[in-house]
Design brief:
Strand order of the largest sheet: 1-2-9-6-7
Order of helices and strands: EEEEEEEHEEEHE
Low-confidence stretches: none
Structural class: mainly beta
CATH topology: Immunoglobulin-like
Radius of gyration: 15 Å
Number of domains: 1
CATH architecture: Sandwich
Number of helices: 2
């Protein structure tokens, strides 16, 4: 079951490889009722507790496969389903400490029938045009790392 919020509460945890904490992850859902192809996705920067992680350093896991920003541009056949959250993975040695963390992520997408002002939103600029049926394109949430 998905949370109402874009940034999901479930799935916020540190990532480990070979017994070492190498980063963290959280999940997001799309607001578009039809889902989107990865080539339509326009990801932005992730900010956690004021630390910026550029879109080129963020891994999007969709359908069990990891994609970087440059790879997603050419994935016109990989579909992000509306009921499937994407897992956002960020490499950060040591991960995040236990406790509350402020998470911000922005993303938008293109579609042939959306007006240009919706398609050309800056995924890093908050407070731009808001479409109630699609939700905000920059999302904030306080999450608890246990």
């Amino acid at each position: 079951m998905l949370d109402k919020e874009i940034i999901q509460y479930r799935g916020f945890r540190n990532l480990t490889e070979n017994g070492q904490v190498v980063g963290f992850q959280f999940k997001v859902r799309t607001t578009y009722y039809r889902g989107i192809y990865l080539s339509q996705l326009r990801p932005g920067t992730v900010i956690v507790d004021g630390e910026r992680f550029e879109k080129e350093d963020v891994i999007w896991c969709v359908g069990g496969h990891d994609y970087r920003y440059e790879e997603m541009k050419y994935q016109g056949r990989i579909h992000w389903q509306v009921l499937e959250p994407a897992i956002i993975k960020i490499r950060k040695p040591g991960g995040l400490s236990q406790g509350y963390h402020d998470v911000t992520i922005g993303f938008t997408y293109s579609s042939s029938y959306l007006p240009p002002e919706r398609q050309n939103l800056d995924p890093d600029a908050d407070g731009q045009r808001f479409a109630p049926e699609m939700g905000p394109h920059v999302n904030h949430r306080r999450l608890l790392m246990v």
